[in-house]
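seq:
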Amino acid sequence: MIINPSAHAMIPRRNSFRRVGIGRRGQALSIPGGKQLWLGVSKVLAGAVAFLFMASFFINGSLTRVSGEIEQLEAIHNELVEANILLRAQKARLFSPESVGVLADNQLSIQLPASGQYYQL
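struct:
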C-alpha cells in the first residue's frame, strides 16, 4: 500500500458556498449594450431626477402663492356680496312709494291731488 504523505496536508480549496461557473477569474460580467451605454443612461436618469426635484419645488411655491391669491380674492368677493346686499336693501327702501312721496313733498313741494282736484278723461 502506498501512502501519500501530502494527502494529509491542508490544501486551500475554493469556498464551497460560492457558485461555480459565474465567470472567469479576472473578467467582469458583460453588460448588455456595453458599459458606455449604461453610464450614459444613468447620467440622463440622474439629470431627470434632479430636474423633477427642482420642478417640484417651483410648482410647490407657485401653488402656495396661487392659493394665497385665491383666498384674498374670495375674501374680497365675500365683502362685495355683502355690500351688494346692503345697497339693494337701501335702494328698495329709498325707492319705495312711501319714501318717494315723502321726498317729493319735502324737497319739491309736490303733492298728490285729492280725489276732487282732478278729472279723469
